[in-house]
Design brief:
The complex is a heterodimer of chains A (267) and B (332).
Chain A lengths: L2 E9 L8 E6 L3 E5 L6 H8 L7 E6 L2 E2 L5 H7 E4 L11 H6 L9 H5 L6 H14 L15 H14 L4 E5 L7 H17 L3 E5 L3 H7 L2 E6 L2 E6 L1 H4 L2 H8 L3 E5 L6 E5 L6
Parallel strand pairs in A: 3-8, 3-9, 6-7, 7-8
Antiparallel strand pairs in A: 1-2, 1-4, 4-5, 9-10, 11-12
Chain B lengths: L1 H6 L1 H18 L7 H8 L5 H35 L12 H15 L2 H4 L3 H21 E2 L2 E2 L1 H26 L3 H9 L6 H20 L1 H7 L3 H6 L4 H23 L5 H13 L3 H25 L8 H24 L1
Antiparallel strand pairs in B: 1-2
């Protein structure tokens, strides 16, 4: 198994209190699951180089994260934060074009004769629009979009960044069933077309089971379990983390495990 | 017509500004027609008329253009950088910090009389220190606190204004000169225009180079960092550039308030917040507004003139209130 991200005894001041070691495989979708405050976002932010760490190191495609300059980092992975302030008057294609920034030469590089590849930018933005089914919305402004559409726009930007790794912090938060499925389907399709490594924090265990090849279960800043959905999503592993009784049934169509919550009164 | 203006905004705006420049040359206590002005340009007319046009009006008009552009570009950048439509060099205390330092240099640094560049230099030190102070005061581990930013800017601005008054109190025989400078004026002469223009050139260029980064910063710092922007370094550079722009303006023209608030805000309403456009439009719009207020300042009173800072303040105050009101209504 080729390894895209290797986390070695990582610790952060808040969030990840005990050292975390894990490896994230190349070319598959890895879900980070766990209850609120488990450290999912902290782990993602650490991988994205945005979180101060107290110990440990992270290797991205065999290179030490701290040694990679910011701009090269943005060509290695695209990070979609949980909250983005909406630029109200930007159109969808302008928002997606922002994803091309890491590929633009800065002023002094431009002075030395490096040119912006406008055609490649245009192509990348068009492909991202198509991948996320946003062609019809390209000229709409951000304020006129629904939450699901907006999230697809941000994911399209991450795709336009043309990076081998995507880090997504709860891409389906606040989205309804339909919008979540649309988003994840688009993502999965793209994953099949080109070798992408996707790491996402996700709350919905059942969606995680349907779309992710591997899962990491975090609780209170500790890595509780790691493996395929079949191994991680078992009541014995999940119950201590969530503090609730849970039942597992196979999905009637694809037989992936699905988790059903039980009401407290029915114990 | 409307869509034409929207598409060729730079052309339309530049033409309007040129027209206003021509009008500024022609109007005032002595009036010239277009024909007369052309005549004067080619060497005709009486020496008095030529003196009025080239020694009195030209420096003022040039000053209005460079100062207006400097202040609005700084305002556009600060509003974008701090993601707040109320940020401007005046509100964040940059102007007060700069003019306090400039006043100190004027009064207590004899060398500044002989070397005029020392005044913008000390103004730059003052406004840059204020900018970083305000920024540090509002910074928390969770990110930048925007309320804290505005409040600390206002507090520092007030402190420096008070310190300025103290300086004025001890200035005695030069107090009236300083008072006039503080109210904001454009009479500093061509030698001063040179220094303001230099600040505008350097600061404006630095802002234009970072316009992509400014766009990315509109979505928050995490998002910008993930787009490959070294957020801390970019912020330092932008604050330094804004301080330079403000320093050039305040060191010779005093406190001309609200240009940096009004122009970028209007530009954003009509042409959106893409900084690649916004910075240029703001520069032209700032020049336009200051030319207009200077024209009003010169022709409003039959004899004598008003300080231009007073007029921009009178316009800016109500506008500020309007923005606040509009923002509050939006939220509900």
């Amino acid at each position: 198994m080729d390894c895209a991200i290797e986390i070695d005894r990582l610790q952060t001041p808040h969030g990840l209190r005990s050292p975390i070691c894990c490896r994230i495989a190349k070319g598959c979708m890895t879900g980070i699951i766990g209850p609120n405050g488990a450290g999912k976002s902290t782990l993602l932010r650490s991988i994205a180089g945005l979180q101060k760490k107290t110990a440990g190191r992270i290797l991205i495609l065999q290179r030490d994260l701290d040694a990679i300059p910011q701009k090269a980092l943005a060509k290695t992975f695209a990070y979609l934060p949980q909250q983005i302030e909406i630029i109200e008057d930007f159109t969808v294609s302008e928002l997606i074009s922002l994803g091309r920034l890491p590929h633009h030469p800065v002023f002094w590089e431009r002075l030395r004769g490096q040119k912006t590849e406008f055609e490649r930018d245009h192509k990348a933005v068009q492909e991202a629009l198509e991948a996320m089914h946003l062609e019809d919305l390209a000229q709409r402004t951000a304020t006129t979009l629904s939450g699901g559409e907006l999230q697809r726009v941000y994911l399209a930007r991450a795709l336009a960044q043309e990076t081998p790794i995507l880090l997504l912090d709860e891409p389906t938060a606040h989205l309804d069933f339909k919008a979540s499925l649309e988003l994840l389907n688009c993502l999965e399709k793209r994953l099949l077309q080109q070798e992408l490594t996707v790491v996402m924090a996700i709350h919905d265990l059942n969606l995680a089971a349907l779309y992710c090849q591997r899962l990491l279960l975090l609780n209170e800043g500790q890595l509780l379990a790691e493996g395929t959905p079949e191994t991680v999503l078992s009541p014995e592993i999940l119950e201590p983390a969530y503090g609730r009784q849970l039942k597992r049934i196979p999905h009637p169509l694809c037989h992936r495990p699905q988790i059903l919550p039980c009401r407290a009164a029915q114990n | 017509m409307k869509s034409f203006i929207k598409r060729h905004y730079l052309l339309c705006f530049s033409l309007a500004t040129l027209a206003l420049i021509t009008a500024s040359f022609g109007l005032g206590s002595a009036q010239f027609t277009l024909h007369q002005m052309l005549d004067l340009l080619t060497g005709g007319g009486s020496p008095t008329e030529r003196a009025i046009l080239f020694e009195i009006r030209l420096p003022r008009i040039a000053m209005a253009v460079v100062v207006g552009a400097s202040l609005s570009m700084a305002g556009a950048c600060l509003q974008g950088l701090f993601r707040n439509p109320l940020a401007d060099p005046y509100v964040l205390g940059l102007s007060s910090g700069g003019s306090f330092a400039a006043a100190l240099a004027l009064l207590f640094w004899p060398a500044a009389q002989n070397y005029p560049f020392l005044i913008p230099l000390s103004a730059f030190t003052g406004s840059a220190l204020t900018a970083f102070w305000v920024y540090q005061a509002a910074k928390t581990p969770q990110g930048l606190q925007l309320n804290g930013l505005l409040l600390s800017g206002i507090a520092l601005g007030l402190t420096f204004s008070a310190a300025l008054s103290l300086v004025l109190y001890f200035a005695e025989n030069r107090a009236s000169d300083l008072m006039l400078w503080l109210m904001g004026h454009l009479n500093a002469g061509l030698h001063a225009v040179k220094w303001v223009a230099l600040c505008l050139l350097l600061g404006g260029l630095a802002l234009m180079v970072h316009c992509d980064a400014l766009n990315a910063l509109l979505e928050g710092e995490d998002s910008a960092a993930s787009l490959g922007i070294d957020v801390e370094r970019v912020k330092l550079r932008l604050l330094a550039a804004c301080s330079l722009l403000v320093a050039g303006a305040v060191s010779f023209c005093g406190m001309i308030g609200f240009v940096g608030l009004l122009v970028p805000h209007l530009a954003r309403i009509f042409w959106g917040s893409d900084h690649r456009r916004l910075l240029l439009i703001s520069a032209i719009g700032g020049a336009f507004l200051l030319l207009l207020t200077d024209l009003i300042a010169r022709i409003a009173l039959p004899n004598g003139e008003l300080p231009v800072g007073v007029i921009t303040g009178c316009l800016g105050g109500p506008f500020f209130l309007w923005i606040l009101r509009r923002g509050l209504r939006h939220r509900n």
